[in-house]
């Protein structure tokens, strides 16, 4: 779905940018020029950005291994 008609920015492009490490609207503006023309897309772009960042955080947390201490390791 197109988020920014002025600069032809889709949700997929925003997701790819977030996958590439972007986490803020200023970064998206600099990279994709989203929200730099008429500005009507800014709220939707910000919402998509937040959803993408939340998805990445959730995936990262799901992949983390729980921290386990072994009693024998502390005694040594």
TrEMBL record:
Entry similarity comment: Belongs to the Bfd family.
UniProt keyword Metal-binding present: yes
A GO MF label: metal ion binding
Protein name, as recorded: Bacterioferritin-associated ferredoxin
Organism from which the protein derives: Noviherbaspirillum cavernae
Pfam family, one: Fer2_BFD
Alphabetical keyword list: 2Fe-2S, Electron transport, Iron, Iron-sulfur, Metal-binding, Transport
Domain BFD-like [2Fe-2S]-binding: 2-51
Keyword Chaperone attached: no
Lineage: Bacteria, Pseudomonadati, Pseudomonadota, Betaproteobacteria, Burkholderiales
InterPro entries (UniProt xref): BFD-associated_ferredoxin, BFD-like_2Fe2S-bd_dom, BFD-like_2Fe2S-bd_dom_sf
């Amino acid at each position: 779905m197109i988020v920014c008609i002025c600069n032809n920015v889709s949700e997929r492009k925003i997701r790819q940018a977030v996958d590439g490490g972007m986490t803020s609207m200023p970064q998206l503006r600099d990279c994709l020029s989203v929200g730099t023309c008429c500005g009507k897309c800014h709220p939707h772009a910000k919402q998509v950005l937040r959803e993408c960042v939340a998805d990445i955080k959730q995936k990262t947390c799901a992949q983390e291994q729980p921290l386990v201490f072994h009693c024998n390791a502390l005694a040594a």
